[in-house]
């Protein structure tokens, strides 16, 4: 009986110890998750401050550290900052091309992470348009319809975003004023080339 009692006591102690270890693990894991979410929010807050201050290079350096993130909010901001860095006069032609393609990849990843993020759609459309400058007229015209679809989706998700509305306006104006010879080229390349009107 004494041996049995000692065995039971040892079992209770081990169970209690295991329970405490388990509870401590849960507490630490929970803290880590909360800490991680605060970290993302902190990075976004810092990024928005740098963007508002026009600190293009600092913003890029901050965000590129998070290029493997699963957070769409971080990724579309990285797409935007990569594009902004590419637009700087101090950026070499080679760097500009690399940053332009990188920005499209980040925007694409943001969309994959959250298809309902309006900014991811907006920046995907913008970055896809930029890449077209390197890939020739056929690709640029072919991408135009996809670009417009992403702008329209961004407006569906956020009807008050003035930038996206402006971008659709530019898109429509570009195709409405397209010279006849460019239309002819587009018509030979595509069965139904993108078109628009000044009224639209």
Automatic annotation (TrEMBL):
GO terms for molecular function: microtubule binding. Its main location: cytoplasm. It is found in: Cytoplasm, Cytoskeleton. The keyword Repeat applies. One of its GO terms (cellular component) is mitotic spindle pole. Keywords: Cytoplasm, Cytoskeleton, Repeat, TPR repeat. InterPro entries: RMD1-3_a_helical_rpt (IPR049039), TPR-like_helical_dom_sf (IPR011990). It holds the Pfam family RMD1-3. Interacts with microtubules. Belongs to the RMDN family. This is Regulator of microtubule dynamics protein 1. The gene is Rmdn1.
